[in-house]
Amino acid sequence: MSLQYQAVQWNRQKRLYDAVLVGGVALYLLGFGAVTEFLFPNITEEILLMRAFGSAAFILLHIILCIGPLGRLNAGFLPLLYNRRHAGVTLFLLALIHAVMVVTTYHAGGDTNPIASIWVSSPLTHSVAGVPFQAFGFLALVILFLMAATSHDFWLANLSAPVWKSLHMLVYAAYALLVLHVTFGVLQAETSLVYAVTMAAGLVTVLGLHGLAASKEARLDRKINAPDTDGWVEAGAVADIPDNRARIVCVAGERVAIFKYAGKISAVSNVCQHQNGPLGEGKIVAGCITCPWHGYQYLPETGASPPPFVERVPTFQVRLKNGRVWVNPQPNPAGTRAEPAVIEL
Amino acid sequence: MSDDFYIGWEARPGAGPARRLRTLVVLLLVVGLGLAVALATQQHTIGTSVFEWGNLKPFSGRLELQPYPHLLVPRPGATNSQPGFSTYYLVAPFKHGLDREKFGALEGQMVTLQGTLIYRGDQTMVEAVPDSIHAVASPASLPTGAATVRLGRQTLVGEIVDSKCYFGVMNPGQLLPHRACAINCISGGIPPVLLVRPKNGPAIYLLLVSALGKPVNQQVLDFVAEPVEITGEVEWQDGLLILRADPQTYRRVGR
């Protein structure tokens, strides 16, 4: 959380995250390069770099795509999400180096403009060879560039969270394009089963994890209780909510996070204003609801970030009856105080 | 600090998240390194070819321009069982063939040039520095090409590659990832070659020409980098295998 924009709000854990990220990428590149040079000393250096950086980017994209659903399924993976943006920018840089090597090696030096060559130098035919796999890669790189260029919180704030989130959901389009890029490119040449199996395992893992996470959330959303005569909805037993934690319920189509803390119950929208993180999977820390994704904080009674911060989320009125929580499904404007319900012992 | 709840901006993670994180990082690094080794070892398209980049050498021989530019270099100490010359394909830098019109006046003459060797198997090519090609006084015995040997009509299945990349400038320089480059090269005048891999024995390279023996660079582009079947007349000329066939009769075949 910050009141002003900085290039990077460095802290110890971001530095560690980036050190591990860069170290991991370097380990992969060196491992791939050393083994290839040892086994195939005649390989052209440009193609070695092309393959090393391209495969590193594709593997990193898989890891990035898996972090989200893994974090929803098991909170132990959430630290990977904290600085995922730097992984995304790293992914773009790896892909850019791969693309520069491809353009300078395969497309430059001829009669055709190197960028135009991507589109015209591989004519469509009625065969696998005619599938424009390099064009798929180019389009994916454009998406990755847009995401990397707008990854800073400045763009998140100025584009608004929903627009920014929609833009960054294009990563799935980039992934689909890259699956086609790899399938109709290098997999048509390198026919080892290891390549095909690795590719299939990656695809199954990404799709499977997203399916599992979606299924978990769909189960949650299906638990809709009928409203009382005054429109309030019953949202479970107080005793089922752990101290300083929340229960997420779907009320009138919106997820609401109901927190139990300091002998009280408060309810806020489940959607963090920062990046739409699930507040209900967070925790009360120092009296504030703390988002599990990036640690953004809100006071449970008002849904407002503690001063001097300015983020706010909608609140909901709550009441207790016979040890059960009831929620008014009509949200209060973001940052509006809603009187917490006091738990009577 | 929150013991079991990770907050990125805290100075240090709690003991639980820190322990899980260490395990996760080690696991990711091991998987990453394992993938690097597995993907590197399973590359099967890298052959043995050489481009002596940065190593310019002088060459001299008889310049021939048909069907594609090549140099007949006298072979010292040749016996009767061997031809008296070696045949080197000639190409220009980057993705360009040697300009036949520019050097038309030198055809059949002894020339010297500076160039860089490219070789794979028994195929040798020189990337010539165009401005370095000059006619020189012909020696008493100018190497002459052997009589053309006709090997009959044959049907061959292989891949059309651009000879410059495949012989060594790029390794691997074949199949679909390299298709756009091969098309750029062939379009730019690099001789197209049919690469045939017999089940037993070394690869065979056939220069592709039309039924009339003319270059076919622009006509073969749609067939590059995938399996094709070509039926035509095969002949042996100046130490080069040549396949004469009309590109309209080329047939794409499945892998």
Explain this structure:
The complex is a heterodimer of chains A (345) and B (255). Chain A has helices at 12-39, 45-73, 78-82, 84-107, 114-120, 133-149, 153-159, 161-168, 171-183, 193-222; strands at residues 233-237, 245-251, 254-261, 264-269, 283-285, 288-290, 297-298, 315-316, 318-321, 324-327, 341-342. Chain A is of the alpha+beta class and 345 residues long. In chain A, the strands form 3 sheets. In chain A, strands 2, 3, 4, 8 and 11 form a 5-stranded antiparallel sheet that branches. By secondary structure, chain B is of the alpha+beta class. Chain B has helices at residues 15-41, 163-169, 179-187; strands spanning 49-51, 57-64, 70-74, 85-91, 110-120, 123-128, 134-135, 149-162, 192-196, 204-209, 227-237, 240-244, 251-252. The mean pLDDT of chain B is 92. Classes of the chains: A alpha+beta (345), B alpha+beta (255). Chains A and B meet through helix 1, helix 2, helix 3, helix 4 and helix 10 of A and helix 1, strand 1 and helix 3 of B.
Global geometry of chain B? elongated
- Which geometry of chain A do the CA atoms define? elongated
> What is the number of strand segments of chain A?
11
Order of SSEs of chain B: HEEEEEEEEHHEEEEE
Strand percentage of chain B: 25-35%
- CATH T-level fold name of the largest domain in chain B: OB fold (Dihydrolipoamide Acetyltransferase, E2P)
Number of domains of chain B: 2
The biggest sheet of chain B amounts to: 5 strands, mixed, barrel
| Helical stretch tally of chain A | 10
Give structural attributes.
heterodimer, A: 345 residues, alpha+beta, Rieske Iron-sulfur Protein, 10 helices, 11 strands, 49% helix, 13% strand, B: 255 residues, OB fold (Dihydrolipoamide Acetyltransferase, E2P), 5-stranded mixed beta barrel, 5-stranded mixed barrel, 3 helices, 13 strands, 17% helix, 33% strand, elongated
